[in-house]
Write a structure and sequence with these properties.
Blueprint lengths: L22 E5 L4 H12 L3 E6 L2 H12 L6 E5 L7 H15 L4 E4 L15 H27 L5 E5 L12 H22 L5 E6 L6 H6 L15 H8 L10 E3 L4
Parallel strand pairs: 1-2, 1-4, 2-3, 4-5, 5-6, 6-7
Helix pairs in contact: 1-2, 1-7, 3-4, 4-5
The protein binds NADPH dihydro-nicotinamide-adenine-dinucleotide phosphate (NDP).
The site of NADPH dihydro-nicotinamide-adenine-dinucleotide phosphate has 29 residues, from helix 1 and helix 6.
Length: about 260
């Protein structure tokens, strides 16, 4: 849409206070890429709302942030597979009560599901993956829009994948869900483009050393892949003031 063609978040080098005063909510913040981005946002002085399903993982990230001279962290436990409307409403109300607005929303949590042919794909598993990866991200965005609209310069960032941009055999519901995320992002960006300062984009982290990557590629040498900590700068670019006006884009965190 506008400005996204020339913007490359991979060139960004965040300053020490790049996200000062911003409140940023991150799903799947207890491990992998979500954890790394949460730590990086806090290091850039954001107030981070850590959302995830496993409380002890969120508490560990909270403790890491609290031990540093950085922004603050708040925990909001939410299982995106089981959450009902009341849970979403409670979270949105808590964000507004505590911070008065939301400046950034990173949809990072996802389920891989199975790698199998569409011909054999288990239907209940397909539904679970679509629910966590797409429906929950839609519902969370919808319930948090009033808080995002209270920010003078908010960001919504969805997590995509290479298989969400070009289909690949055996990636099943995961690939379908990431295509859907690209569609959700473009649709929302178009809707919000004229009337608000909220920007909406997707980011593909690229191959990264996490539990999900191990699950997808069990025979791969994970040591050869970058750590989540090394790919956080593009996320901060797309969550921070430097990406003002950049919306409707599909970005990569790594050079291929
Ligand atoms: P991880 O498996 O390390 O992290 C996934 C996160 O999602 C975990 O924190 C997990 O929580 C959370 N999550 C899963 N299900 C739910 C749920 N029902 N409710 C709440 N949280 C949930 O994977 P990555 O860090 O690798 O993945 C992060 C994102 O990056 C995903 O969207 C993934 O699709 C994408 N991606 C990753 C790539 C890679 O190479 N790593 C490549 C391309 C895209 P818990 O720990 O409690 O289970």
């Amino acid at each position: 849409m506008n400005d996204s063609i020339d913007f490359d978040p991979r060139n960004y080098q965040p300053t020490a206070a790049a996200l000062e005063g911003r409140t940023i909510l991150i799903t799947g913040a207890g491990s992998g890429i979500g954890r790394a981005v949460a730590l990086a946002c806090a290091a850039a002085r954001a107030n981070v709302v850590l959302v995830g399903r496993t409380l002890r993982k969120l508490e560990a990230v909270h403790a890491e942030i609290s031990a540093r001279d950085s922004g603050t962290a708040t925990i909001a436990q939410l299982d995106l597979e089981r959450a009902i409307a009341k849970d979403y409403d409670t979270l949105a109300a808590a964000v507004l009560a505590r911070f008065g607005r939301l400046d950034g929303l990173l949809h990072n949590a996802a389920l891989l599901g199975n790698l199998s042919a569409i011909a054999d794909y288990d239907v209940p598993l397909f539904t679970r993956v679509m629910h966590v990866n797409v429906t929950a991200a839609f519902a969370l965005t919808q319930v948090l829009l009033p808080a995002l609209k209270k920010s003078p310069d908010a960001r919504v960032l969805f997590t995509s994948s290479s298989v969400g941009r070009r289909g690949r055999a055996y990636w099943g519901a995961y690939a379908v869900s990431k295509f859907a995320i690209e569609g959700l992002s473009q649709t929302l960006a178009h809707e919000l483009g004229g009337s608000t300062k909220i920007t909406v984009n997707t980011i593909n982290p690229g191959a990264t050393r996490t539990a999900m990557r191990r699950q997808a590629y069990p025979a791969e040498d994970l040591e050869k892949l970058p750590l989540p900590e090394s790919i956080t700068a593009p996320y901060l670019a797309l969550l921070g003031p430097v990406s003002r006006g950049v919306t409707g884009g599909a970005f990569d965190a790594q050079r291929t």
